[in-house]
Amino acid sequence: MSDKKTLSQSAFAVISNWYYYAILEMTFKTDFSSHTSDIAKKLGISVLEAELAIERLQNLGLLTKDAQGKWQKSKGNISDLEIASRPGTDRHVQILNKASKAIREQDFNMREFHSVTFCIDKSFLPDAKEKIRHFLEDMNLLLESGAREEVYELSVALFSLEKN
What we know:
The protein is mainly alpha-helical. The protein is built from 6 helices and 4 strands. It has helices at 9-14, 18-26, 36-43, 47-59, 86-105, 125-143, and strands spanning 4-6, 63-65, 71-73, 77-79. It has a two-stranded parallel sheet with strand order 1-4. A two-stranded antiparallel ribbon has the order 2-3. β2 (63-65) and β3 (71-73) form a beta hairpin.
């Protein structure tokens, strides 16, 4: 996740819905279709939401067209603003709501409960789950080794944003 692009709070507010990140990452898929109706169907959003998202991402320079006219993510990842900002809070609530739905509806072997959006090769899921588990163990050892002053929650979630 190098080459991060930090957005202003006002720019982040424009793209704070979860599906903006998903659209950017979908552009890495080999079978990606730039048609807004296909994007909307895959993500379970309206065509209008997909159209507005693409327009806003393009206006912010986060989405461009390649020589063949297909949408592609511009270089760099988007750095989230602090959770204390309203758009940041809204995005994380949306992610948690989606995670809540995934807990009930997605196969246990296809999810693990974090929030970063990226397009993946699904054959790496078993390895990713293993690394998440080790990370949680390491964080537990680190954070519980000092003075225990307050109770915190660390959420890690790995689940598909696409409708299957």
